[in-house]
Amino acid sequence: MKRAVILVSGGLDSATVLWQAKALGFSCFALSFDYGQRHRLELEAATKVVESAGADEHRILKLDISAFGGSALTDISIPVPEEEQDGIPVTYVPARNTIFLSMALAWSEVIGAKDIFIGVNAVDYSGYPDCRPEFVSSFEKLANIATKTSMESDDLIRIHTPLIDLGKSEIIQLGTKLGVNYSLTISCYQPDVDGKSCGKCDSCRIRSKGFYDLGIPDPTIYV
After folding, report:
1. 3-state helix, strand, coil in the chain (%, to 5)
2. In terms of C-beta distances under 8 Å and separation of at least 24 residues, what long-range contacts does 64-69 make, across chains too?
3. In sequence order, which ranges of the chain are alpha helices (DSSP H)?
4. pLDDT at 133 over 90
5. Angle of CA points 202, 64, 34, to nearest 5°
6. What pTM did the predictor assign?
7. What average pLDDT does this structure show over 209-219?
8. How far apart, in whole angstroms, are the C-alpha atoms of residue 171 and residue 148?
9. Domain residue spans in the chain?
10. Mean pLDDT, range 44-66, rounded to an integer
11. What is the pLDDT of residues 103-116, one digit of tens each?
12. Among 82, 103, 90, 87, which residue's Cα sits nearest to residue 35?
């Protein structure tokens, strides 16, 4: 089986991507990050998601991006907005996907994988610049220039973004067909101490609307 590195955050999108990579016949190596985010619940969710999918291996890599701040997800002094914002929101974490994909690329070289999956989305997303097709395409070009793998093999390194053109309801519909257990996932930027989602942040609103538009119950437990 061909190996693939799958970025798994514990959220709805990355869970769907993991199951899809598995359905495509890849041997899945899941990679999550303890990057100084506001809460660790998403790492607990990622572990449950990976175990449920039966991935071959799961690594949680510690990278303290919070040392730089600059985002409501890594700096608790910046409140998570509960209303839609114009432009790039304060929940954008500077260079996060660039860093995550770089680490995934490093691991892929070690394990001999030439496929990397990431659940970025350019339709129902919050305006993050590193979720756009232009970013992914540029990073893929970089990966095929800057690695030992690209120098010694004719096979290209591929960055897979199977959800990039799908709306949230389409993603949920796909995942449901694949057998994703969405009750294991968490999307909220600011869940309470009991793990209940706020229902107010941008991520909660997009997730809730996705289930509503599809006409199926949302398994999320909200405050």
Report:
1. 40, 10, 50
2. 64/35, 64/36, 65/35, 65/36, 65/93, 65/94, 65/96, 65/99, 66/35, 66/36, 66/37, 67/36, 68/94
3. 12-23, 41-53, 96-111, 133-143, 148-152, 168-178, 202-214
4. yes
5. 65
6. 0.95
7. 95
8. 34
9. 3-181
10. 96
11. 999 999 999 999 99
12. 103
CA 180 to chain centre: 15
Measured in whole angstroms, the distance separating CA 219 from the mean position of its chain's CA atoms is 19
Tell me how far apart the alpha carbons of residues 85 and 72 are, in angstroms, rounded to a whole number: 13
Report the 10 Å Cβ neighbour count for 148: 8
Residue 210 pLDDT > 70: yes
> What CATH code would you report for 3-181?
3.40.50.620
**What is the distance between the alpha carbons of residues 118 and 21, in angstroms, rounded to a whole number?**
10
Q: Give me 92's structure tokens.
A: 């954008």
Q: What is the pLDDT of residue 137?
A: 97
